[in-house]
Write the structure tokens for this entry.
Amino acid sequence: MFGLEKPAGQLKPGRSGGLPKMASVGDFNVLSSSIPATKVELSVSCRNLLDRDTFSKSDPICVLYTQAIGNKEWREFGRTEVIDNTLNPDFVRKFIMDYFFEERENLRFDFYDVDSKSPNLSKHDFLGQMFCTLGEIVGSQGSRLEKSIVGIPGKKCGTVIVTAEELGCCRDSVLMQFCANKLDKKDFFGKSDPFLVFHRSNEDGSFTICHKTEVVKNTLNPVWQAFKISVRALCNGDYDRTIKVEVYDWDRDGSHDFIGEFTTSYRELSRGQSQFNVYEVINPKKKGKKKKYVNSGTVTLLSFLIETEVSFLDYIKGGTQINFTVAIDFTASNGNPSQPTSLHYMNPYQLNAYGMALRAVGEIIQDYDSDKMFPALGFGARLPPDGRVSHEFALNGNPQNPYCHGIDGVMEAYYRSLKSVQLYGPTNFAPVINHVARYAASVKDGSQYFVLLIVTDGVISDMAQTKESIVNASKLPMSIIIVGVGPAEFDAMEELDGDVVRISSRGRFAERDIVQFVPFRDYIDRSGNHVLSMARLAKDVLAEIPEQFLSYMRVRGIKPSPAPPPYTPPIHVLQTQI
């Protein structure tokens, strides 16, 4: 059997625009359907920078760049302040970035010795740079990454320390309850059927709906049920941002009657039940027409309770490791690898579908895996020397140690296997699932989580056994990603995914949803731009992992371990500003 216990930990940032001279760019795209990402704050310190000044020490500044996925272009995200006369700066200004586990965010930190007030960086002395991903920072022990600064040949440029801290407001949720009194009567027969609609304001003055209460039938004095909403969804973490609440009378045909509205903010609501949180409901049209108009009723906040959610990042920061295992389908239905029609065709100029899927998913997961050693398995082949069929063999030929170093090591072992094994059959998933499950069953304390990536052409032979394996594995700290390559019908894979109907075996249902399936062909870019299409593939297959991870921890009542003590550098005075 192969050993699997190993470390890991890392998270993915999302797209944040860059404004020169701004270290915190906190806006999110209002067109995006997803809730704003978790935000992380990056702190930067350097040690032993190059000294470029003759009579004093350097006056350093740090400039952060992010990389566009498609054209790989570097864009300035923000700058710290300038600190005069030091080779060991601890920059005060932070970078605030959106973070998505499922996306790879490449970062570049450039350092300059500032010689004038000019914002043009070419007018200043270059001190070196450091490249990393946001995942690498978050996935490092204590979310603290220390790396050498490079970029000036023959010179030691010092080191940079970048620390990531998840912003607390991102994780708070509030439990609120409202009631109303003396609302306007809108129905001819009987009273109104009122409900509330909450909107958060955007930077451009527009509003985005963020919550609707239930309808309370036939009353002008409704008491609505308490509801829970994240602070991000309610006000994007800005406590003073306007929250608009509209009151409607429900109509069966969908043409709900507007009763009135009021505005508030998170800060006002957080005062809880008090005279400050009784709101007059105003109908502007009525107010304009009737001189004696007072209001259309009042809405009162009955309760306001803040809850802080533990996040995926809390566990990663506390040392939980993510172990990534790869399993590749070596069955004959893939076609002869020496033929261009084969899904395993070894094209010297381009990755095949298996290679692309492995790289797309693996390059993101590897950031969370501290030793970057991945077990890589194959199934459905006849092995040398005796031609026995195996459904869990080590791609590197070493069953005692199936680990490959990084995704490059996995790719190398995959290509080597193609030259030595014979594609055969049948397509059995259960052995590789059970293989990873044995390791997951041995560490159920929350210190490790296992992700199995199966890349297959989808013609499965052991459906009943696979379902049983998945139902058993749903109790364990593991998730399964299946990428289907080739033209086959993937009905069986959709069934395993369990998004529509929870998977079951012999009358037992899976405790939680742990399988995510995607067909590779949905991501083929007709223009040949594989970079963007593979980023989309990775985003879709990895997006469910943090929630699957948290569902396991919640069900088991496992809290994150405390993070290692934070790194607190000595404070330096900040002076000049660029």
Notes: The chain has three domains: 38-167, 172-308, 324-556. The CA atoms of residues 194 and 249 lie 4 Å apart. Residues 406-420 form the longest helix (15 residues). Residues 1-36, 571-578 have pLDDT under 50 and may be disordered.
